[in-house]
Amino acid sequence: MMLLSVKETEKMDDIDAMFTDLLGEMNTLSQSLMASADRTEVDSALQTERTFSIGFTDLNESLKELEDHDLDALMADLASRSTTSECSLPTYQQAGNCADNEMAASALPPPSNSAESSGGLQTSEPQTKSDKIKLALEKLKEAKVRKLIVKVLMSDGSSKILMVDERQTVREVLDMLFEKTHCDCSIDWSLCETNPELQIERGFEDHEHIVEPLSSWTRLSENKMYFVSRPQKYVMFTNPQVFYMWKKKKECSSKINEQAKQLLLQEHFGGSTLIVPDLEGTLYLKEDAKKVWKPRYFVLRASGIYYVPKGKTKSSSDLVCFVHFEKFNIYNTKHFKLKYRAPTDFCFMLKHPCIQKESDYIKFLCCDDEHTLLLWVNSIRIAKYGTTLYKNYQAAMKRAHPSASHKDRYNSQVNTQQAPPQTTNVEDYPHEAPPDFIPPPPPGHTQV
Fold this sequence. Notes:
This is Amyloid beta A4 precursor protein-binding family B member 1-interacting protein. This protein has 15 helices and 13 strands. The chain has helices at 6-50, 59-65, 68-87, 91-107, 113-122, 129-142, 170-181, 211-215, 235-238, 241-244, 250-254, 258-269, 336-339, 370-385, 387-418, and strands at residues 53-54, 147-154, 159-165, 189-195, 200-203, 224-229, 280-286, 293-300, 304-307, 320-324, 329-333, 347-351, 363-366. Strands 1, 2, 3, 4, 5, 6, 7, 8, 9, 10, 11, 12 and 13 form a 13-stranded mixed beta sheet that branches. A hairpin with a 4-residue loop joins strand 4 and strand 5 (200-203). The longest helix has 45 residues, at 6-50.
């Protein structure tokens, strides 16, 4: 046996110590990763628990406000999902379960009548609404779905309770509200969110999935959702000359006919590429964390908003990017002249949808007048959403068209019924023979 020297022994001891330290670090790292994974699962579970309802203090309250047929639809959908998840087990597991069930069934004696009656009571469907709510609460906690029960406020102060899921778009929710409120299907109807803390509001676009923006609200948020008519929702398509002929005088753009409007839409939205309004002008920018507004010259492009630095020209090489549209939404504001000492009350905000409180990442811009605000807000929407916005408008027009045609048919029928009967003179129709039967004159009438 070969003996090791003292140096080699010390060297081996150092290697053992290093290896022991490495194992300890790996063990500590693995434990921290497991703990963080557990926290992530708990946080996701809490987030799922929070996003069951919007506009209520708890889920139980929202389920009580839900109408009976919507609650039944929720129960049926959750039952179908649970059945689907059970059927999606691996084949070998299903076969094993079936074999076990058959063996257990063959080993047990035939059930008695009392057992059948008790089983029937256990499997009976809940009859009362409270029973349905309890069962729905249990199934919602088990199901990994993004369903929301939301309260939509009306302009008259009333509200409607809706159940929506992550697959539904704003357009589909609007159709649901049309059926519940029996209002006209005008293209101006919108779903809007309001944030009282920031004093802002935004109209949801028809193609957005309604659950996604609502899920960004905080648990104790005072945000609300309204069903209101917004005449400026599709103003860029009903009056495209306002945005694509804004440099001309208002008198010239106001006299444009419908045929010219359609040509403008075809030119700017019907081609392979979208043409963004070449909007530019001076806006007031709020300085970070200060109530100071400084004028800057901004230029709108398809990718975002750019500004001209001091001492530079409006050439593309000198422009500096102010904000990109991918991560920002545009919001209308209220009373910013009082809150932030803005030059006017015609302001708008650009921020990420997840930002729900005051933040340095929020952009504030102020316009000189209402018309300038209209140009910038809707031109930014055109640049951000592109042809999708035009498709939303076309879908809204198709939805509103049957209602309009129905009204026209109804009015024509009413006018026909109310029109006075016309007298017919035989002399007006010389090619037709007079009728065979002529009624006798009324009593008391003397013939001349």
